[in-house]
Amino acid sequence: MTTEPLDPNDTGVSVGEAESPAPPPRPPLWSRAVLTSLAVGVLVGLAEVCWSYRLTSLSPDWRSSLPVTIGGLAFFVVIAVVIDVCIMLVGGLLWACAVAVWRDVTAGDKPIRDRRLGIPWFVLTMALSYLWVGWVGLFIFPSTAMHSKLFRVTLIGGVVALFAVSLFIAWSLRRLHRVHRRLPTVCWAIAAVILLLFTLPAYSRVEAKSHASVDIPLGVEGARPNVLLVTLDTVRFDFLPFYGRNTWIQTPTLSALAAEGIIFDQAISQAPTTTPSHCSIMTSVYPSVHDAMNGKPMRSDLITLAQCMRENGYETVAFTSSTTTRSINSGLDRGFDRYVDSLVSWSEIFSRDEFQNLLAFYMLGIVQNSQIRGDVVTSRALNWLAQRDEGPFFCWQHYFDPHDPYDPPPPYDEMYKGQLDSRVPLRAERERYAGEITYTDYELGKVIASLKERGLYDEMLIVIVSDHGEGFGEQHWDYTERQHGDHLYDTTQRVPLIIKLPRSISASRSRMIRSQIELIDIAPTILAFANLPIPASFGGRSLARVIQGAERDLEQKPAHAMAWVEVFDPKHPDKTGTFVRKLAHRTSDWKYVLVNHYNQEELYDLRRDPGESTNLSKTRPEICAERQTEVKALVQNEAETRDDPRARLAPALRKQLEALGYLGGDSQDDSDGE
Could you tell me the domains of the chain? Predict the structure, then answer.
């Protein structure tokens, strides 16, 4: 029997019985997960940029700065897209794993045609996009909308409706394989174009507003000393030994600066909280003008000290250390070439987080700190000093360490343990607080030493000031004060201020000025010593002549301060409270405090009662009447109450404020404060 050779092309099937060609293999599930995540991430990133530039028309309280150059906008878009692609990639791969498991469990011996998996991808695209826009709404809409049942029902109902519509479209197109496969790509491309077109008009408005908002005066050629402004958060004036009290606290750096500089004995802060006080320092206007609160940025049409310095040739840099000085919460970055406010100690890339960072970083828990230690601030400043270009500079450093909670690193945590008598109120807290001050002094000393090594120190203008003080159980009229935020007593409003002049400027050195001044006087004083004009919008006055020996010529004027105090409806204690305005009028002799909403007045004789323990408003009504007219004039035509403007904050940002003692309001009696 003859055996024919085998034909390698013979499959054993007759021509008539030949199978139709197999369809080309579809991309594996994993590659489609990656491609879909890329597309959705791009859309979401563009949506965030779009929302960011349209927030100014949707929310008047949203005052954070945005990029106004084409390059800045492009970088903003790239960062947003990259962040969201990463987020969506993780979600897409997890979803692909779930689909793969479901397929393996349910398929058995019957293979599943991968073509049908295009339906879930289409559903996923629309659902994720809508959910993300819903998150945006939750972060920016006012509290009345954010907590309303209608808003939640609309959000959930919209998701369900989009799922249904997506499934119906996918089912309707199930036989049109080519259209089915290409439809998501077409939808993504159209959506990207719409988002870009929707963003550009809003971007143009932001850009135009940024160029037309302020008119900064320019100075003539002259000496331009380098300027270092250091703000020590929550430092009481009487906890620095050169003020003559608490001499057991060690502050060698600050004491050395005080020994060759000018000390102000009655420097009065304009607010008992961090953001509004710093905004008054930087804009030289009262809180009723800049309208900032902790978590709410100041108005964008005010001229800042940094803007004045930058427009006149200064390099402007800032290194801050708390959530209350972050650009997105305060607007204090205005005018700074470099504003480092990252609360991640190992990186500066989280600085000046705009909207996409707010959502991505905070929601993922990357940025959960409410503050960073002074060693990080110092390290960043020293790195900048080592790399800076030639030319004059204005540097602002903010040390938050003395703020509650008082937890200095070793050995400062135990440095003053047992120093105070056990009968002193809040003894342990005072001792740890003193340790924080000494630690901050040590960190500042590193910067001063570096300035001396580089030959910059002698001719520098250095200003050291605190934004507000702190209460440690002092008994006032009807209140035992602890921490800060709700009250305007001298424990929080009288702060330390030291000014060290350039050596070439003639002045009477190493002395204390007893006259009362305000922190809004700092910016005009810095401009005067830098030989720069003072903007007409600045409400403070230059202290240059006073520092140089003309204290007798200083006009005696009252100091003003303001705080927003939250009150709750006793019938609904769980609801967000209402803020009422508290105003203070201070001279060297008298302190007057008014809460006009409740017609509540306080009056203290500071000469005889420096602790502000006896309210004389009932016995000296003539003084109260005079002061009331003056403080009301400062806030004429402004509302006495307001809702919580921080309701727009992301949950993580609100938690950061709570960690600093800010719950519904700025501080809670006897427990909280910032």
Answer: 29-212 (no CATH), 227-529+650-659 (3.40.720.10)
